[in-house]
Amino acid sequence: MSGVGVLDKAVLILTACTNGASLAELVHETGLPRATAHRLAQALEAHEMLQRDHEGRWRPGPKLGELAGSTADVLLSAAEPVLSLLRDQTGESTQLYRRRADERVCVAAAERASGLRDTVPVGSALPMTAGSGAQVLLAWEPPEGILPLLPKCRFSSKTLAEVRRRGFAQSVAEREAGVVSVSAPVRDKTGRVVAAISVSGPIERLGRRPGDRLGMAVIRAGQKLSGL
């Protein structure tokens, strides 16, 4: 604790809302009085640090994403030419994803110029339960970061072990019918996985084993963005 009371309490609230929390859960998790927890959560919501979902639970708000994104400028600046080169090498659309709670957000992309393609607009929030990007973002997480999501996932712990072994993930119609993708990790200077770089396209063009064709290209692209 910092010793600055209101700041410490606000951090407790933000931490408790990482995976969503009702007012009763906030009180239980933080130990704060109900009125205090409610007042602080509303104040954080007013500043867009928190937002309500359709069930009325508080979750991380868009301002936190903006602030986190500002620290990723180096990665985002480096990502544009790497994604464009990977698109040109593979002939398919490319994306860069970051995890945000139980979602992954497309923070950069390079689209195939014409023809049938998988379009993922920058800013799109996709589930952490399906797709090769989700597999990569979960594969190197500690067990406590994986186990709560696994029952909802369209892949298994065995799949994640295979991702760690070969260094890339592939999915076939896992997130969307007719779409396949291949993803590899992007790591920070400590080796922690901070993003997933992906190639995606139609199954009729890439087949049911897209990793055989695209795996090494995606791994190399991830290595170029790692350590920034």
TrEMBL record:
GO molecular function term, any single one: DNA-binding transcription factor activity
Signal sequence region: none
Ranges that cross the membrane: none
Tree of life domain: Bacteria
Domain HTH iclR-type: 4-62
SUPFAM superfamilies: GAF domain-like, Winged helix' DNA-binding domain
InterPro entries associated with the record: GAF-like_dom_sf, HTH_MetabolicPath_Reg, Tscrpt_reg_IclR_C, Tscrpt_reg_IclR_N, WH-like_DNA-bd_sf, WH_DNA-bd_sf
Keyword line: DNA-binding, Transcription, Transcription regulation
Occurrences of domain IclR-ED (ranges): 63-228
Entries under Gene3D superfamilies matching the protein: 3.30.450.40, Winged helix-like DNA-binding domain superfamily/Winged helix DNA-binding domain
A GO BP entry: negative regulation of DNA-templated transcription
PANTHER family noted in UniProt: HELIX-TURN-HELIX TRANSCRIPTIONAL REGULATOR, ICLR FAMILY (PTHR30136), TRANSCRIPTIONAL REGULATORY PROTEIN (PTHR30136:SF39)
Protein name: IclR family transcriptional regulator
